[in-house]
Amino acid sequence: MNKKLLLLTLILFCQPVFAEVMIWEVLYNPINSENGGEAVLLYNNDSEAVDVSGWFLATESSSIDATLPPNSIISSGGYLLIADNGFSLDKDYTSWPDAHYEEAITLANTDAGVALVGGNTTIDAVGWGNILNIDEGLYEGTPHTSVNEGQSLRRIHDSNDNSMDFVGGSPIFYNPDPDPLELIIDVEVNITNNNPEVLSIEILSDDNSSKPGVQIEPVAGSEKKFEVLVEAYDKDNSSELESAKAVIGSNEFNLVKISSNETHAFFRGNVSMEYYEEARNYTLQAVITSNGQEFSKSTEFEYNSVEAISAETNLGFKLAAGNSSVQTLTVRNLGNKDISLKVKGTNLVNGDKSITIDSIEYSTDNFETSKTLTAVYQQVTTLTRGENLEIDFKVTTNDDQKSGSYKGQIRISGK
């Protein structure tokens, strides 16, 4: 072999093999541990072994989140499992294989992705959630919509579109040393349906991430707004997707198309809930219109409870000795739960002089009936969510009441 041929051979031999190594499975939201249960499985579809030493994972939290050590080689048709520190001890099921390599990695549960990088080349990437919130380079095509806790994203195609190439399900994590008496058969079902459909509907806020599902906290006495993102599919042409709306009960909210391609369209907009609407689980429905037909998909969220009341904080009475005066206080239930309204008060004092508490009456029916105010809470009524109540207070003074400014308190409670 001459020198030129030898040099060419060495150059070709040293070129890294990228094309056939891919991310095969991602577990980003394990059940038992967020700090030791996450994992990424690589697969070599090449006919030759590939040295992946020095390749690394990039995530939302770090551009170099985990780096494969020297002598990391994936055989032809083989797998390499990268996992968080402690995976072999903290994995959800002991039947899963131990990781080939463990290093602290951080895979967010929503709107995130992971990329496999060799040198300066991104080999493969998988994203999940809202495309608008995922860093560029951490997904291919359209991100997958996401999976439930304990499920993984597993590859079924390689078309460079995460939404089509991955499905959610129970993690498999192929054992690198398979049982010769066990076969794992991949099953693929292709269904052709030309009808448009809503692929996903996502509420872009969660006011209490410590609880499962989506939690929406009301705003006492005011309207609560939160954003919704809808992904729709139309095989023929997304321009046929004429409009989209979000529906909660009898309330409809128009959504705006923010992006589209030949097959997908994304719609976004605000929905709102009044403060007095009942605290419970609600169904949020996304409806798209195409050629006069409607297609829909639903999700659920919990509208949490809020308790609050409001009223004027000052009552001013002006009267002559031996007379009475009435002032009205309007109490508002600013929450979405019925409250038990109570009232109590104090003597009205001016130095060593006073108007005693038994000189103050209150009524909710224009004094057709009334009660005398006391120093302990008395039940007034049940104030339903969103309701207002007028309470009249009457102060009566004696003929010999000394002139001056008498001060005290009236207290209203919804507890």
Task: Please give the structural blueprint.
Elements: H1 3-14, E1 21-27, E2 39-44, E3 50-51, E4 56-59, E5 66-67, E6 73-74, E7 79-83, H2 87-90, E8 101-102, E9 112-118, E10 121-128, E11 152-155, H3 162-165, E12 166-169, E13 197-203, E14 215-216, E15 223-233, E16 241-248, E17 251-260, E18 264-274, E19 280-290, E20 293-303, E21 309-310, E22 324-333, E23 339-345, E24 348-350, E25 353-355, E26 360-363, E27 371-372, E28 378-383, E29 388-396, E30 410-413
Parallel strand pairs: 7-8, 14-20
Antiparallel strand pairs: 1-2, 1-11, 2-7, 3-6, 4-5, 4-9, 9-10, 11-12, 13-15, 15-18, 16-17, 16-19, 17-18, 19-20, 21-22, 22-29, 23-28, 23-30, 24-25, 26-27, 26-29
Would you mind describing this structure in some detail?
The longest helix has 12 residues, at 3-14. By secondary structure, the protein is mainly beta. The chain has helices at 3-14, 87-90, 162-165; strands spanning 21-27, 39-44, 50-51, 56-59, 66-67, 73-74, 79-83, 101-102, 112-118, 121-128, 152-155, 166-169, 197-203, 215-216, 223-233, 241-248, 251-260, 264-274, 280-290, 293-303, 309-310, 324-333, 339-345, 348-350, 353-355, 360-363, 371-372, 378-383, 388-396, 410-413. The protein is 5% helix and 42% strand. It has an 8-stranded mixed sheet with strand order 13-15-18-17-16-19-20-14, with no helix packed on it. Strands 8-7-2-1-11-12 form a 6-stranded mixed sheet. Strands 21-22-29-26-27 form a 5-stranded antiparallel sheet, with no helix packed on it. It is elongated, with a radius of gyration of 33 Å. It has 3 helices and 30 strands. The protein folds into 3 domains: 17-169, Immunoglobulin-like; 197-303, Immunoglobulin-like (Sandwich); 309-413, Sandwich (Immunoglobulin-like).
